[in-house]
Design goal:
- The structure is a homodimer.
- In chain A, a hairpin with a 3-residue loop joins β1 and β2.
- Chain A contains 13 helices and four strands.
- In chain A, the strands form two sheets. In chain A, strands 1-2 form a two-stranded antiparallel sheet. In chain A, strands 3-4 form a two-stranded antiparallel ribbon.
- Chain A is globular and about 65 Å long.
- Chain A folds into two domains: about 15-35 and about 190-310, Cytochrome c-like domain (Cytochrome Bc1 Complex, Chain D, domain 2), CATH 1.10.760; about 35-185, Orthogonal Bundle (Cytochrome Bc1 Complex, Chain D, domain 2).
- By secondary structure, chain A is mainly alpha-helical.
- The N and C termini of chain A lie far apart (about 65 Å).
- The interface of A and B includes residues 79, 322 and 327 of A.
Chain lengths: ~325, ~325
């Protein structure tokens, strides 16, 4: 019986080369398996990736002293242990303040592949993005001067900046956020989906391959495409209104366009949608079909798509918990107010 | 000139064997260099250390979903990147609430060597301690039921508990905190001071050795002794009243006794004292002399002691940022209230 089912499934599945072709035609792209090619994609041409910069960027990413309170690091909302986000509906920051627009923290993993950052796409890259939450009153609530003072107060940080950028480096707020952005660029998580598209036919299960086809056939890839499966800006509420549209006041950018979130590691990044109101991946799939594609996605199709989405759970590079430099007498004191 | 100074210093220093003897007579002990001996000291006889339990304990230690808000893990206040504490005066927890007694978070590193846990020494070991902050309203604010529900909602956690404790394991709140305690037992940071006491005469500099002598001669080791250099309970305000005694209402245990904090990694764990009011290590040394020993510690002695304290900066084992299991439909939702 099992054998017959497998045979039947195999018959229903497109041949490997056809499905790969179909996937690429739908605008979906794998993370390249070649390190050189990947580096070309993720590098910052104005500030090339080096080991020294990435290691320093990691420390800064994990350093809560960059915030006004000394308690909130980048990793607080973009937790590398939790799929790269915080698992709550609306981000919580300084003084336990929720995001005033009730916006959900997006994952930092694979965010390098986005054309634009933030739900309203207002920043073009991770370096620009990093400046936002650090200064936002309900997030890290730090002034650029605070950040500069914190970093320059510790000789170990100063010498790491010199090692990374040369002896004459000026440690500015932008240099700090640029370095954090560079670390974030490396947070790429290839999965069996990429292995499959890169030529390993056995990397995905039949159920996952079927799910990929369903995903394409239902039209999901019209927005969730590119390497991130969610790369650019798109209209929302195309065929119906999102059922929790009234939670928060977010309406997208000036043209009502919204940054399409990545589907990579999506099983780990509930709750979903810009205001984090949907906790179940199945419900998110159904609601997307209803409001974006004007189509009912059947239970069977939902399960199939979900199987495919599981294939996007990526392999994360081991990151060693950094040991931060000790504060000095010159380090600004934390303030809880 | 430099040579003469070195020679002069060497003359002032006790011979290696004498200083080691003097140190041991003062009640100071090294972290054993033998792994077997160390394991005997840190193991929990009722719940032996295994790799599976420690790896699971690490995940739980880093998992913010154990808290009511889903935002506060053990690592929030006992940050392994920051010397094992949070770098703020009074701990901040759920709803941005400060510790009601204005108590400072002690470091988790080497806490296994304490005879008692908490500033008032109310718990005997790390396993018992772990139950406190998890339930305290101004800290993680979780009920035992919440913690059990979170953990048992994720099949990956359940199977890790089974791997660690056997198939019939009952995943209770105590099992969770016991496992976290076991991970914390492994957070031991030997330093050049231990290398020196364990026989490597060149491990400490002459200045550090002189500092160790000053430390003993001034009487610091009368409280700061044992492996942790701060192991047991002692009276406070012995010869004068701590100058910030009025910040918070902490008066010690029923007998006015206070847990002596460890001096290991002390350069990384400012601010100092139970209410975190002193930010400078030099000032802390002077104040301790005044209120505990009834002695004026001169600038020169302060610098010498500080040199010794730097020798207590320990080597931290590389800890890989854990990848936590994904929440499921059964995982309790975070609550910010």
């Amino acid at each position: 019986m099992k054998i017959i089912t497998s045979v039947a499934l195999a018959a229903l599945t497109l041949s490997a080369s056809n499905l790969i072709e179909k996937t690429k035609e739908a605008g979906l792209k794998p993370i390249p398996s070649s390190k050189t090619e990947l580096m070309k994609l993720i590098d910052n041409p104005k500030n090339h990736i080096t080991d020294e910069k990435v290691e320093l960027g990691k420390k800064l990413y994990f350093d809560p002293r960059l915030s006004k309170s000394g308690l909130i690091s980048c990793n607080f909302c973009h937790n590398l242990s939790e799929g790269g986000d915080d698992g709550v509906s609306a981000a919580i920051g300084h003084k336990w303040t929720a995001n005033p627009h009730h916006l959900n923290s997006p994952t930092v993993y694979n965010a390098v592949f986005f054309d634009a950052q933030f739900w309203d796409g207002r920043d073009k890259d991770l370096e620009a993005q990093a400046q936002g939450p650090m200064q936002a009153a309900p997030e890290m609530s730090a002034t650029p001067e605070h950040v500069e003072k914190v970093v320059t107060s510790m000789p170990e940080y100063v010498s790491e900046f010199q090692n990374a950028y040369g002896k004459d480096v000026k440690i500015t707020f932008e240099k700090v956020t640029d370095t954090i952005g560079l670390f974030e660029r490396t947070l790429v998580t290839p999965s069996v989906y990429d292995d499959y598209l890169n030529g390993d036919d056995k990397a995905m299960t039949s159920a996952q391959k079927n799910g990929l086809e369903t995903f394409i056939d239902k039209g999901c890839a019209s927005c969730h495409n590119g390497i991130a499966l969610g790369q650019s800006m798109n209209a929302m509420n195309v065929t119906a209104t999102y059922k929790y549209q009234n939670v928060g006041d977010f309406k997208g950018d000036a043209n009502g366009m919204v940054k399409v979130p990545t589907l990579r590691n999506i099983t780990q990044t509930a709750p979903y949608f810009h205001n984090g109101q949907i906790w179940s991946l199945k419900e998110a799939i159904v609601e997307m079909g209803r409001i974006q594609l004007g189509t009912k996605i059947t239970d069977k199709e939902v399960s199939s798509i979900e199987e495919f989405l599981k294939a996007l759970d990526g392999r994360k590079t081991d990151i060693v918990v950094p040991q931060l430099p000790a504060s000095t007498d010159k380090t600004p004191k934390p303030s809880m107010n």
